[in-house]
Amino acid sequence: MLVFRKPIEGIERPQMPADVVIVGGGPAGMACALRLSQLIDDHNSKNPDSQLSKENIYVLEKAREVGQHCLSGALLDPRSMRELLPGFEKEAPLDAEVSKEAVYFLTEKSKFKFPITPPPLRDHGNYVISLNRFVKWLGSKVEETGITIFTGFAGSELLFDGPRVAGVRTDDKGVDKMNQPKSNFEPGYDLHAKVVILAEGTRGSLTKQLITKFDLAKNSNPQTYGQGIKELWEVPSGRIAPGEVIYTMGWPLTTREYGGAWIYGGRDNIVSLGFVVGLDYPDPRLDPQHVLQDFKQHPFVAKLLEGGKMTRYGAKSLPYGGWWAIPPVAGDGWMILGDSAGFLNSQRLKGIHLAIKSGMLAAETAFEALKKDDFSAAMLNRFQKKVESSWIKDELWRVRNFHQGFEHGFFAGLFHAGIQQLTGGRGLRERYPGTAGYQHMKKLAELPPDGGDEAHLLGPAKGDGKRTFDKLTDLYHSGTKHEEDQPSHLVIHDTNICNARCIKEYGNPCQNFCPANVYEMVDDAEQPNGKTISLNPSNCVHCKTCDIADPYQIITWVPPEGGGGPNYDGM
Amino acid sequence: MPDTILVVVEQREGKFNRVSWETVTAGQALAAETGWTLEAAVVGGDVTNLANEVAAKKVAKVYAIQSPKLEPYTPDAFSAALKQFVESKKPKLVLMPHTYQVRDFIPKLATAMGRSAITDCIGYKTEGGKLLFTRQMFQGKFTADVSFTGDAPWFVTFQNGAFRGDKAEAGASAAPIETVNAEIADGIVRNKPQEVFKEAKQAVDLTQAEIIVSFGRGIKEQKNIELAKQLAEALGGELAASRPICDSGWLPMDRQIGSSGQTVAPKLYLALGISGAIQHIVGMKGSRTIIAINKDSEAPIFEIADYAVVGNLFDIVPPLIEEVKKAKAGS
Are residues A54 and A141 located together in one domain of the fold? Predict the structure, then answer.
């Protein structure tokens, strides 16, 4: 019997007042905390009579350790870090400065190099980093300044007071599979905050609650997403130089899918390799992990990885929708940062620098609010204005119609992108509409039974165990671990749809798009179609793909008991 | 008259819970700091012997609070007896160890008296003449100093290990013992305690088994488990399974082998209908001899099997059971 996680009702919870609660200890949340700390320290040194306290500023991080759930390629544009910590390059854990870039178009057996690296993909001046290590370091700087980071605590619900966000409720701990308290039960805390800053990363669960409750997205394009799926490899010396950056397009995807791969040379012969698949592909049988394995079969990639060893695996979704898909980012008692808001440049494939800048601007707003003790919507809306007059807007404005241009296929996308390049981002009209990715998914009845051109992308990868892997083997290398005896945190609102409708219409694509084998259809003679949905929630890597891509939109991802999740050391 | 600190020590079925000595240490420290008198109480059916033991410690007096209704333990009886006692003796501070038993009745006792309890404390301090009790928050990230705002008696429980039981000072001479007959009216005790639950000794310790017969999804239906069981019995081995089997509840969790179950290294590991996903392999790859039966010739289990049998386990296992029985009968 499937029981889904829900905050326990009718119990007393510890109540705690707070000034600022930042939900999420990723680059946006940490940059916000650090900047706020700097502003307060500066203020206090100049105003001995009216000191501001940092004691009531908290960061909530659901992972057991800071950085453990952070995954990205990654390439860091140092622009915002240089504003936050001038000279940061001397102490931050950077793998290498980008030394060489190449962009390839792949076919099944060969490759064509772009004679000129397209300007958006030029990375000179950027750094290859491990986001996990980078955030760990940022986190240590935050703690040094005296702001408390609560690791192992997830934000499970927003607290509302009429139109106001009044705080955050943390996760209930020690709840068993049937959602009943165990002997080690600890109710979640109710943190009553003057402002809640949501920095949960892509498809934040509290952000989703907020947007739904206040219909915040009514004037925006629907947010669209891709899934980034990554492996870390140790390769023999000399294969790839630290700082070498390679992007590929084309094979194994067809013109009907959006996406491409990255290969970054890190230090110590470690290669970051991965594929981003737009979650708006037509065939529900497509399996992004299979796409990645196919990619590694290409002679070019196979040669690179020959004799190497895969050390880590992970996946995360990323918001592609661009400027028009960003909802209002501030309101009565709340602000939204980073990927949760959708601050990502899909053309450059970069968002970390924007997340950090958004954190800094939110910190400045929170600081002004603290000084005046005014956390009204009018005050917090300053964050919206700051974003709109900052280089975040300048950068994202130029690519505001980029991803939407690809909704009708690869070549159409290139065409639009070309025109947008010449018109400062406008393209053929001011605002290209967008559609949510899951609406592009076609029913099985509309597709060739054998998959046609996409056949090699569909269904689970078998893996040869050396260069390519089946999903379970890859998953093992994500280090994901959860308390087993807890309710399922993948909340399916109506499992009858899975067993009676989806199985026939789409073939239960959750089995394919989940990179962690959480969803399985297992034999059940009592079901109309002989199968029932079965979950392995402890496999989850917190990528949020299911919440995004399910064609019926009946899956809600909520945080499991804090402390559980993947272990993205080095990712 | 100085105020009193009362330490309620815990006994169960006539045996002390050792953690009570920690509470005595706490009481002694508090008494030294505040100048209040330290007394102790034992609650139960017939606790004279236990009271004598407590009297050896440095306390001013020991009370043996007795009644046949206090054996076995019930929260109603303990709460009633202690309420009566505390109301008559009026201690300022009542200390107990934060045990399961105390957790069972202290909320009831405190509420019945309209008083507060500060529980699971890791220490105390005094600030400006006020007593503060320290509790942990956010899984130990923070501590909070909590004080009483209401009237005495104040109820406090201390966490295991917050004080050192071996530091409880012995008294110069045995403290006087006063027996108090608790009057518990009929009908007060609503529970009828059954046999004390003894943690069921794990039926099996797979790590000690020399032969393990393990099965996975290939067994297809729950009723087919009988086949694996027969093989295990014939071989004199233990039954085990991979994760999906235990997740479905077909076998208890303590029979699961793999990264989220047991890790075993028996002399013989028989894998029936197990594909050999890495999560399972890490739990058994140390086995001396591995025999795998699977109808999929490409199953990863065959990479680590010493003997690979590609075939349908339903065809192979029944005759195998017969052969094993024959071989054992013959020898």
Answer: yes
Please indicate, yes or no, whether residues B60 and B156 belong to a single structural domain of this protein: yes
Residue A29, both tokens: 């949340």
In contact, B122 and B144? CB cutoff 8 Å: no
- In terms of residues, how long is chain A? 571
- Structure confidence at residue B203 as a pLDDT band (50, 70, 90): low
Number of separate helices (H) and strands (E) present in chain B: 8, 17
pLDDT, tens digit, 9 for 90 and up, residues B129-164 = 899 999 988 877 789 999 999 999 999 999 988 888
Supply the DSSP symbol for A533: E
Confidence of residue B331 (pLDDT cuts 50, 70, 90): low
Positions in chain A short of pLDDT 70: none
Q: Same domain, yes or no, for A168 and A193?
A: yes
Per the domain annotation, does A367 fall within a domain? yes
Distance CA A1, CA A116 (A): 57
Cα–Cα dist A281/A259, whole Å: 10
Helical segments of A197-329, H only: 205-214, 288-297, 299-305
Contact A14 B303 (CB under 8 A): no
B316 contact A CB<8A: no
Cα separation, A271 vs A237, in Å, equals: 11
Alpha-helical regions (H) of A328-470: 338-341, 352-372, 377-388, 391-398, 410-422
The contacts of residue B223 (CB under 8 Å, 6+ apart) are none
- Three-state secondary structure call for residue A391: helix
Residues in A touching B277 (Cβ below 8 Å): 470, 472-473
Helix (H) or strand (E) run with residue B247 in it? helix B243-247
Same domain, B160 and B39: yes
Same domain flag for A433 and A385: no
Domain holding A418, by residue range, is 404-437
Instruction: List pLDDT tens digits, range B53-88.
Output: 999 999 999 999 999 999 899 999 999 999 999 999
**CB nearest A472 (choices: B139, B279, B303):** B279
Q: Which residues of A379-407 are buried (b: 16+ CB within 10 A; e: fewer)?
A: bbbbbbebbeebebeebbebbbbbbbbbb
- Chain A residues with CB under 8 Å of B137 CB are 14
Q: Which residues form the domain of B144?
A: 4-181
The verdict on B213 and B75 lying in the same domain is no
Q: Do A484 and B259 touch (CB under 8 A)?
A: no
In 3D, which of A355, A350, A305, A353 has the Cα closest to residue A329?
A355
B57 lies in some domain = yes
Per-residue tokens: A42: 């500066």
Per-residue confidence band for B102, with pLDDT thresholds at 50, 70 and 90: very high
In a domain, B195, yes or no: no
Residue A34 to residues A38, A76, A139, B116, Cα–Cα distance (Å): 6, 18, 9, 40
Residue B196 domain flag: no
- CA–CA separation, A87 vs A83, rounded Å? 9
B61: left (phi over 0), alpha (psi -120 to 50) or beta: beta
CATH code of B106's domain? 3.40.50.620
In a domain, B193, yes or no: no
Is there a domain that residue A163 lies in? yes
- In A, what residues contact B, Cβ < 8 A? 14, 148, 150, 152-153, 186, 189, 462, 465, 470, 472-473, 476, 481, 484, 522, 534, 536, 538
Instruction: Write the single-letter amino acid at A399.
Output: V
pLDDT of B198: 65
Give the per-residue pLDDT at B295: 95
The DSSP secondary structure of A138-149, one letter per residue, reads HHHHHHHTT-EE
Check whether residue B144 and residue B218 sit in a common domain.
no
Mean local confidence (pLDDT), B242-263:
90
Q: Which residues of chain B from 188 to 207 reach within 8 Å of chain A, CB to CB? A: none
